[in-house]
Specification:
Elements (H helix, E strand, L loop, with lengths): L16 H40 L4 H12 L3 H9 L10 H7 L2 H22 L11 H23 L18 H12 L4 H17 L4 H17 L11
Helix pairs in contact: 1-2, 1-3, 1-5
Amino acid sequence: MGNSRPKARKRSSTKGEEYYGKKLHACKVQLKRAIKKSKEVEIRKVVKSLKKAKDSQPTHVPPLEDKLKRTKNIDVAKVWSFLCADGPQEDELDEDSIRVAGSQAVVDHVQGLRDIKEKLQEAKTNPVVENMPLKPKESQVDDLQRVEEKTVKASAKDAIPKSQDKVKRKKPKNRMGQRARQRLAEKLHGTDAKHKSSERKKNQTKKAAEAPLHPSWAAKKESKDMLAIHLHKPAGKKIVFD
């Protein structure tokens, strides 16, 4: 009987149209996020220069305010559709939109988008057909041999009497600690848990012991204490030296 196992089938490294279609969608989503982030960065830059101009160069404030307004009004969807388009567009981007689209992050995503489009086009022209490779004859023989071994072992195990068969005993689980048991009891029974009721009884007895006694009880207790002291007072023997 051979001990060699059948080799696992390797996944094909070729990627088809469906794979690149998903990659293209993910790249477009990332591109839109990059455009939004670039717009926010440009707004922060203009706001920062506007604050400096208010302190040192008041004449530069009006054009900067106009630039801030135009930057806030940039249409992210328009910039995104312009960059995702394959061919030339009728409507061109204005100066502020071009500044947002010219950030390094947006340019990198656009380049990645173009690469994925090229690979998608190649996958469409040259579709990949993956066929499941058949197992070699040697591996099929090995599989049959392993099945035979399992059946022989199972039949031999059934032939052994139960008294001689080793029974695997489950290892007992460790018991929960006291605090864990108390927390579980609180969740199940709330304030009626056993340890809670015992705590309440102890507190009640402690309060009853600390409460002031009735004057007659206090006098009786004091007399008992004095009597116990006199009864148990040590009587020493007097020694006289000549």
